[in-house]
Known about the structure:
1 helix
Amino acid sequence: MIATATYESEDLRVSFVCQMERVDYGVPRSPSWWEPVQETVEIDELEILGVEVDPAALPKDLRDAIFGLNDELDWEEEHD
Length: 80
């Protein structure tokens, strides 16, 4: 499953996309839920101060800091 999440602040808007995987506690009849596969998380769109920016054009430290914003976001299934 593909999912998206968006971080928004006054100066920054970042859309992320990733693959999701179903996980559980590993015991019979345990609940299951969807979690992002961190290795697949990508910055889909980046807007800084209202200007579209190519993430690859940013210094690595800044790109890594922006990428880290996805950690606490709620992911939603992508619908076409």
